[in-house]
Design a protein that fits this description.
Largest sheet: 7 strands, mixed
Distance between the termini: 57 Å
Number of strands: 16
Strand content: 25-35%
Number of domains: 2
Number of helices: 4
Radius of gyration: 21 Å
Order of helices and strands: HEEEEEEEHEEEHEEEEHEE
Length: 274
């Protein structure tokens, strides 16, 4: 893979977004969605990667990032490079947020992760030398000042992937409609922020599992079957209810308190004896 911004890199982007990211000989796929956003931070892209294994089954992974400078890199939805020259793609994700105007700046920019594609997974490079990646982000986004790196906060969606499918999804718990929006109580001394506000948890969708734990979020769903693999990213409530109805055993990937993925395995049908 060529360096970011090279002629070869741009030519490959012109031919499409599919490539061999993890260098395993299988062609992979990148799908980029650009949501409509108004304001100062308008360049976000939501990326879904499908890395295919030797059997042809995809392993999904998603990330949100700011799009590189559109004038210099018109067809590049993310900062993709190979700084260690091992043939495996690296992705550098960035974020733009409104800054403190009183401090004289309007936006804050941060590097939210550096990952390398290996064996159908994206692995966070938390111990890599940050200097070349900061240089690449500066070159691609045209931003010279970055917030300090928070490597420990770079999420790893692959955690739990090698665990057995040992639990079941039991119940979906929708968020409490009374906890939506902003609720600031007014006391005799004016507005205040309550401690241990129940809405801190109730405003989120949650799910109950067979190990007795309630975890935040309704994760994206992968269902492994005998004839293929189904992946549900958006509007995944129906897939989660199917997992409950069929009693599939599952494993949870990512943060155990708020999983990114629920990986289910179809139970083989029991053929009655004649």
């Amino acid at each position: 893979m060529a360096r970011l911004g090279s002629t070869d890199e741009r030519r490959r982007m012109d031919r499409g977004l599919d490539r061999r990211f993890d260098h395993n000989g299988q062609r992979d796929l990148l799908i980029a969605v650009h949501p409509g956003i108004n304001g100062r931070c308008t360049g976000r892209a939501d990326l879904l990667f499908l890395l295919f294994d030797q059997t042809g089954r995809p392993s999904p992974w998603y990330v949100s990032t700011e799009i590189p400078n559109g004038k210099e890199y018109p067809y590049l939805p993310a900062i993709l490079l190979d700084l260690n020259s091992d043939g495996r793609a690296e992705i550098l994700s960035t974020a733009c947020e409104y800054g403190d105007q009183s401090a004289g700046h309007w936006t804050d920019w941060s590097i939210t992760g550096v990952y390398e594609a290996r064996d159908t997974q994206w692995i966070p490079l938390r111990s890599a030398n940050s200097a070349p990646y900061i240089q690449a982000a500066t070159r691609a986004n045209g931003i010279k000042t970055w917030l300090p790196l928070k490597r420990s906060e770079w999420p790893d969606q692959g955690i739990g992937r090698d665990a057995p499918n040992s639990i079941a999804l039991k119940q979906l718990i929708p968020s409490d409609e009374h906890c939506h929006g902003i609720n600031i109580p007014i006391g005799p001394d004016g507005p205040f922020i309550p401690l241990n506000d129940p809405c801190d948890e109730l405003r989120h969708d949650r799910a109950l599992y067979s190990d007795g734990r309630t975890r935040r979020g309704w994760p994206s769903v992968v269902i492994d079957g005998l004839h293929g693999r189904e992946i549900f990213i958006a509007n995944n409530e129906a897939a989660l209810r199917r997992v409950i109805e069929k009693g599939y055993r599952v494993k949870l990937l990512g943060d155990d308190a708020e999983p990114s993925w629920l990986w289910a395995e179809e139970a083989q049908a029991v053929v009655p004896l004649p």
